């Protein structure tokens, strides 16, 4: 554990600088919350104009307090913050939360003030939360810290929540209280002038109180660090994050195919997916899932049991199960027999098991126990549909008891009988997670299963191929000081060959005269292409002719191409002809590289031609990729079936696709000065030796090292 | 309006048969709810063992009541129901709600009882709700009817809700109360022995109190009637329905391509889409949208304005807007100027407009008014993020006032400050719909917009082509009494030609000897296919050879085919060879018909070959289709771009695709005995005369008329 945050979450003494004696102000509320929640340390209000606040002696300055102070919480007006920081330094306080707003978020003046603030805390060695934040909570019994001004009392549980937005944080705290969802620790990080989301999740990694981490971030300061960290953490405990599409504005409006296929969501998607972070799109969804991780076991598999007293809600559960990746199998004969004995004659006992509205607490309890023992199911949803003949609370309690010792995943669906929830918490604190409607419970189980599969998935490794790094360096040296530049095709070919990627053999020809001289030596059929470093979508301007069988046709094709280029006003960009063997069979793919300013290089894979054009069926990952990631990339495109062979087609060499993705990944790791790569088309067949890159473009930015 | 349900929703007098004097029983709760909610008519408890119940004189039998009775609500035990019905008849009661369970839903014995019940009410001319239901609500001030046993008081509003499931209905009523969502009328229809969901929505069609209809149905008794009705209704008011995938189990496990591509969701999807029903997947979503329809205006367009006092929630709103089909444009210069004057210096005023946490009620109110006047936006979300310097209630009230007279769509997001909701209802009953989080508000606006587009969309019409109906009848007569049968290809060709669909010209040949005789007359290149009524996926067993240029190659191809069929043990199914011109260009499509036992015929369109095989990219609609539906069908497949021409390809004749869909629709309407049709492949190019059906299969079931 990164101990530097201990003073934030476990302070033995707190100074509240700017505490107000005026009821209803935010700083009064904060002190009030600290006291009401039963903070187990010492509180020192600091306010030059008050003798005492909340019956506690108040100090004029922090430095006047005799005791040592672990944490200062600052709510003074903006212009007093720097002075107060100096005073904290005098008092040797090492951790400060600045709640005061009006810094970077409010414009130029505030930004200057924030810079000065950061300068001072760095000088003093103070760790800072905020500014412009809304505080910290730790519900652990040994500390009972509620340093926020949000009304209501946090409920204790296993969720850690870090929020970049204060308003959203406050709203979430209210929602958690209203829905009986238990929090372990909460921190609002505001402007992240010092302590970032990454620092917090790293701190939570080893804290056994935190069973699940929830994250609301609007921006990633260091996306690479986030990925690295969360990759480690998600193997131990889940991270759930709300989507924020704001991170990918950095992908340059690229002229490359690959760049054009990246969307504003590409980076966040890749980041979360590669690090096993569970992405949600709403706050409600985030905590529906978080409470499941907090209170339920992970399912061993996808088989769902449903116990109910009414048909309708069970149907909703079944309907949702497919989308959630779950199945609703028949129960074993033995289970059915046992249920048959326990339940009324007309009760269906296959799955869903419907105990009918007359079901008693005893019947619910024994049916729960019987179903949980059935090896045909991995998880169980118990639905308590109104009206119940007995009190819903009694039934909920007896079901909770019946679930208590099972290692399977259990969920309780109370069908909007919300009045039961808070009493259930007090009378059966070990109860399964509670949902209003069955759909939400089913979705949550689906997410638990996804996470369990992620935890058990192969981590994989970065593969290192033997490559000829030196040749590439030599080629790139030729372009030194050219800034941003497309490489010549012959250099592209050499580079790809140096890293073991199979570019098709080809012959250059400057003009038609030269072409006539080489035409008779060619092995037909061939393709002829107009080449030029700035000639990008050459097939769009009639710059490519394929399936040429004779010398006469070749010359005619070359003439056509020049005419086409002329008509499209692209003749200036033409440099030479390229002649290559014409390949008929195989599947066209596209493999490429693009770069996000913030998150770095991404690699892309997809099927070429109409699949890319029409369906945008591509997959991106952040570099470098591991062998397991290359594997999942290829398998995750929608048209994957085309690679495995359908009807009469043979499967292509999928291992070899993966190998090429890994080789390209290695090239970019070795030479991050590449900003765009398009291997398009890259043809794959079932025979490795037939697989060829037919065309390729590469762009480098030289003298501009890769920034993490 | 269908007046036959008036006695249910507007009864002047009610007999509660089986009312109990024992507090806590369901029948006691029901009578209690009727009284507490302030029912404006006369109540008559019926119970042989009580003198009075709830201080109201009780009767031993219905027939002993002196006054006339509009509605009887029955909660007697199952074995007394028939007697009580007889007594209702004696009393000339024309409407009865049977809440009692234990009928069809409980097994064979109950089913027999239900049959008897239905027989009697039909004889007596009684309209029946239930059995096995949970009652009726009408919140209208002139009636104040709460004939359910669900605790809590319904809130008055514009939503009609019909539920097939009682338990779900009860849960929804609780949710509506908890979330301040206003109900107009509610009915639980239980086993639908008489009154169906269709009857209820038809009744609500013309009721001005009902602004939006919400529906939970597990099964469609008459899907065609539902479609017809809801098509009419949704042009007047919205219908929101929860998905229920249970309706499509009727699609027979077909050997046809088209049948195999239909999923369990195909029928419901087509049904809802063609009738403009808004489909949701959760109860929460249903009422998030319903309350928007109840309380907000429809947006004129997709442009969303966001007013907030905190950045985080505004970002969530923006993130969600794309998925909801909305845009967040800049405000006009004039608006920005006005906001600049009203708002603090650091407040961003472009859109989102962020008033900062210090915002007052006056500032919120004037910013709301200014933004609503901007012609750059069609809808406005006002977010009140905690903490607010003033009371949230005051701000919510002044925003509500500012929205009151605008014709634009307004939404209020209270960021989980739920305590405000009930007070806002009392103090500003005209307030905009209230949401906990901005994502939900944005989604709801998206749905309002979708609905508005549906309302304004062309209805279109069924097109009648001149066809040769008689020839088809003659052909089908040949197959009479064959039961279920595949037609011969030559008959298929004739039928398609009779309805103006272009089958490719082709020549038959019984064997290779015959082939040699006709080979020299052919115009090459040609295709040769093995034919046979039971030879279905012929290309999978090597039964097709294409692009044949010479007589010798043709003979060789025929030999190959026979050899292939032999190897696949399909020689027995071979009947003859078919020779057709080989067509190289154009786009392969597949057009087909399948039949759902419950909902009838469906027509399918998709791109053929790998698009169908790999991506399942097809669209189904229920027959008959209108020209507008043919149009939207073609446009709704994911690979539509391929038809409009990409890169060097020309667009195909899309009008002609639509025409063929409509012609096929007409054929099936005229001859519903077709159960399967596959036109596959059906090639389209840019020239109508080149478009050809290359292969076709048709199955009929004769002597089995189409059932609605």
Describe this structure in a few short sentences.
Two copies of one chain form a homodimer. The first copy, chain A, is α/β, with parallel strands linked by helices and 708 residues long.
Tell me what you see in this structure.
2 copies of one chain form a homodimer. Chain A is an alpha/beta fold and 708 residues long. The first copy, chain A, has 24 helices and 30 strands. Among the domains of chain A are: 3-210, NAD(P)-binding Rossmann-like Domain (Rossmann fold, 3-Layer(aba) Sandwich); 297-456, Rossmann fold; 505-582, 2-Layer Sandwich (Dna Ligase, domain 1), CATH 3.30.1490.20. A 7-stranded mixed sheet of chain A has the order 9-8-11-10-12-13-14, with helices on both faces. In chain A, strands 20, 25, 26, 27, 28, 29 and 30 form a 7-stranded antiparallel sheet that branches. In chain A, helix 12 packs antiparallel against helix 13 (361-372) and helix 14 crosses helix 15. Mean pLDDT of chain A is 90; it is low at 247-254 and 704-708. At the A-B interface, helix 5, helix 11 and helix 21 of A face helix 5, helix 11 and helix 21 of B.
Would you spell out the secondary-structure blueprint of this structure?
Two copies of one chain form a homodimer.
Chain A (H helix, E strand, L loop, with lengths): L5 H4 L3 E5 L8 H11 L5 E5 L5 E2 L2 E2 L13 E4 L6 H10 L4 E4 L9 H17 L2 E3 L6 E3 L6 E3 L8 E8 L2 H13 L4 E6 L8 H9 L6 E5 L6 H11 L5 E4 L14 H5 L4 H9 L3 E3 L2 H13 L8 E5 L2 H13 L9 H10 L10 E2 L6 H12 L6 E5 L8 H12 L5 E5 L5 H9 L6 E2 L2 H19 L12 H10 L5 E3 L2 H10 L8 E3 L2 H8 L6 E6 L12 E5 L2 H17 L8 E6 L5 E10 L3 E8 L2 H6 L2 E5 L4 H10 L4 H4 L9 H17 L3 E11 L7 E2 L2 E6 L7
Parallel strand pairs in A: 1-2, 1-5, 5-6, 6-7, 10-11, 10-12, 12-13, 13-14, 15-16, 15-17, 17-18, 18-19
Antiparallel strand pairs in A: 3-4, 8-9, 8-11, 20-30, 21-24, 22-23, 22-24, 25-26, 25-28, 26-27, 28-29, 28-30
Helix pairs in contact in A: 3-4, 6-7, 10-16, 11-16, 12-13, 13-14, 14-15, 17-18, 19-20, 22-24
């Amino acid at each position: 554990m990164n101990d530097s945050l201990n003073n934030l979450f476990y302070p033995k003494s707190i100074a509240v600088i700017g505490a107000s004696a005026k009821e209803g102000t935010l700083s009064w509320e904060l002190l009030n919350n600290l006291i009401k929640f039963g903070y187990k340390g010492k509180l020192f209000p600091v306010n030059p104009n008050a003798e005492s606040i909340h019956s506690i002696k108040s100090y004029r300055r922090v430095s006047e307090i005799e005791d040592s102070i672990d944490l200062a919480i600052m709510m003074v007006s903006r212009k007093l913050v720097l002075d107060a920081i100096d005073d904290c330094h005098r008092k040797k306080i090492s951790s400060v939360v600045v709640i005061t707003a009006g810094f970077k978020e409010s414009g130029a003046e505030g930004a200057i003030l924030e810079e000065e603030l950061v300068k001072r805390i760095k000088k003093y060695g103070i760790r800072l939360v905020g500014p412009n934040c809304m505080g910290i909570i730790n519900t652990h019994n040994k500390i009972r810290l509620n340093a926020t001004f949000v009304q209501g009392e946090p409920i204790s549980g296993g969720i850690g929540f870090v929020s970049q937005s204060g308003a959203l944080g406050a709203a979430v705290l209210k929602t958690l209280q209203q829905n009986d969802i238990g929090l372990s620790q909460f921190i609002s990080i505001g402007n992240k002038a010092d302590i970032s989301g990454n620092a917090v999740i790293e701190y939570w990694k080893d804290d056994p109180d935190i069973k699940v981490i929830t994250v609301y971030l609007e921006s990633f300061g260091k996306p690479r660090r986030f990925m690295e960290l969360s990759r480690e953490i998600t193997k131990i405990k889940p991270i759930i994050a709300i989507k924020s599409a704001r991170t990918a504005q950095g992908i340059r409006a690229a002229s490359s195919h690959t760049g054009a296929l990246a969307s504003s969501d590409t980076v966040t998607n890749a980041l979360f997916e590669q690090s096993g972070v569970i992405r949600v799109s709403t706050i409600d969804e985030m905590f529906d899932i978080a409470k499941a991780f907090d209170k339920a076991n992970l399912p061993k598999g996808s088989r769902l049991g449903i116990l109910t007293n009414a048909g309708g809600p069970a149907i909703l559960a079944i309907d949702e199960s497919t989308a959630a990746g779950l199945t609703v199998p028949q129960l074993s004969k033995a289970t059915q027999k046992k249920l048959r004995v326990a339940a009324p004659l007309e009760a269906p006992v296959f799955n869903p098991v419907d105990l009918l509205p007359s079901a008693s607490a005893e019947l619910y309890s024994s049916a729960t126990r019987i179903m949980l023992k059935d090896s045909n199911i991995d998880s169980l949803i118990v639905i308590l549909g109104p009206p119940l003949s007995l009190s819903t609370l009694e039934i909920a309690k007896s079901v909770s008891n019946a679930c208590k010792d099972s290692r399977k995943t259990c969920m309780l669906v109370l069908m909007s009988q919300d009045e039961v929830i808070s009493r259930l918490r007090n009378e059966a604190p070990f109860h399964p997670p509670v949902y209003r409607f069955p759909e939400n419970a089913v979705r949550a189980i689906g997410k638990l299963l996804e996470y369990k599969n992620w935890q058990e998935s192969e981590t994989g490794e970065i593969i290192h191929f033997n490559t000829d790094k030196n040749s590439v360096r030599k080629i790139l040296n030729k372009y030194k000081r050219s800034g941003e530049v497309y490489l010549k095709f012959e250099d592209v070919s050499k580079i790809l060959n140096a890293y073991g990627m199979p570019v098709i053999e080809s012959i250059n020809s400057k003009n038609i005269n030269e072409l006539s001289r080489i035409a008779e030596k060619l092995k037909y059929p061939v393709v002829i292409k107009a080449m030029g470093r700035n000639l990008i979508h050459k097939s769009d301007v009639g710059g490519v002719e394929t399936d040429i069988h004779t010398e006469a046709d070749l010359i005619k094709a070359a003439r056509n191409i020049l005419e086409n280029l002329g008509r499209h006003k692209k003749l200036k960009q033409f440099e030479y002809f390229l002649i290559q063997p014409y390949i008929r069979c195989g599947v066209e793919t596209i493999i490429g590289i693009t770069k996000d300013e913030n998150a770095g290089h991404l690699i892309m894979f997809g099927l070429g031609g109409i699949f890319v054009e029409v369906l945008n069926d591509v997959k991106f990952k952040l570099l470098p990729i591991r062998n397991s990631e290359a594997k999942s990339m290829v398998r995750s495109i929608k048209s994957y079936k085309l690679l495995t062979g359908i009807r009469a087609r043979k499967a292509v060499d999928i291992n070899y696709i993966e190998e090429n993705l890994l080789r390209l990944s290695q090239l970019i790791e070795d030479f991050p000065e590449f900003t765009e790569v398009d291997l398009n088309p890259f043809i794959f067949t079932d025979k490795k030796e037939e697989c060829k890159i037919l065309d390729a473009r590469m762009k480098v930015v030289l003298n501009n090292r890769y920034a993490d």
